Every structure is written in structure tokens, then in C-alpha cells.
Amino acid sequence: MSQFSAFFKENSSVDITEEIIVSERFKDEDGKPILWKIQGISEERNKAIRKSATKTEKGKGGMKIPEIDPDDYTTKLVLESVVYPNLKDAELQENYGVVGADNLLNKMLLSGEFATLLEKVQELNGYDQDINKVMDQTKN
Question: InterPro entries given for it (predicted)?
Fold first, then answer.
């Protein structure tokens, strides 16, 4: 296989998933924390999420300025990445008295737990790399 062909779609790893502990509060029958499963997303999907979290604000002179709502964006990014538990499950939403995966996530997790989940989602999607390290590795 040539070095260039390593970039072909069929040679790249598509299924990037990880199991993590988001909270010590959700335990199985043995009292162990239940693992959440998260997955990486493509930049194509990320752009769609970013676009859906962007509102147009009126600027000076009536110009329309796109502005990303960071809370909306991060919530949608997390929702897109969580595979398990199924946050779209109607029974789970009903149990928490909410409708919608975003409302469930906000009701289900403590703020620190959400921050932990967001951090892990960002790491899995490659946002944890220091750009200077990446550039140094590229040079060598």
C-alpha cells in the first residue's frame, strides 16, 4: 500500500468510539458506575451542528451578522456524540418529565458531569491536541 492510499476512505478508521464514566451516580446492579458510549463525528456533521446553532443578529447599518450560540452548539455536539444511553428514548425522557434529548441531558446531569462529558467528546473529536505539538510533529 502506498503512503497516499492510506488516506483512502476504505483505509481510514471510521468507528471511533470510547466508553467513559460520566457520573458516579448511575450504577449497575453491582454498584459500579455505568459507562456511557460516545463516538467521534465528521467535520461535515460538525459544520451542520454549528450551522444549526448559528443565529443571525442585526449589526450596525442593518447588516446581518451570524453568531454561534455556544451553549446550543456544545449541547448539540454532545447529543450527536452520545451513543449510550439513548437520550432520544421516550421512556427515559418521560421518566425525567422532559421532552427532547437536549432537555433530558440538562435535567439528567449535574453541571460538572456535563462538563466532563463535553471534555471527553471534544477529546475524542481531536480538540485535545496542542496545535504547536501537531506542527512540531508535522515538521519531523
Answer: XkdN-like, XkdN-like_sf
Q: Where are the domains of the chain?
A: 4-139
DSSP 124-139: HTTTTS-HHHHHHHHH
* Distance between CA atoms of residues 25 and 34, nearest Å: 9
pTM: 0.79
pLDDT tens digit sequence for 108-124:
999 999 999 999 999 99
Q: How many CA atoms lie within 13 A of 136 on its CB side?
A: 5
What integer pLDDT is reported at residue 21 of this predicted model?
Answer: 95
The Cβ-side half-sphere exposure at 7, using a 13 Å CA radius, reads 2
Domain 4-139 = CATH 3.40.30.10: no
pLDDT tens digits, 46-61: 999 999 999 988 878 8
Helices (H) and strands (E) in the chain, counts: 6, 5
In sequence order, the 6+-apart residues with CB closer than 8 A to the CB of 20 are: 35, 36, 38, 117, 120
Contact of 87 with 104, CB cutoff 8 Å: yes
Smallest Cα–Cα separation from 120: which of 17, 15, 25? 17
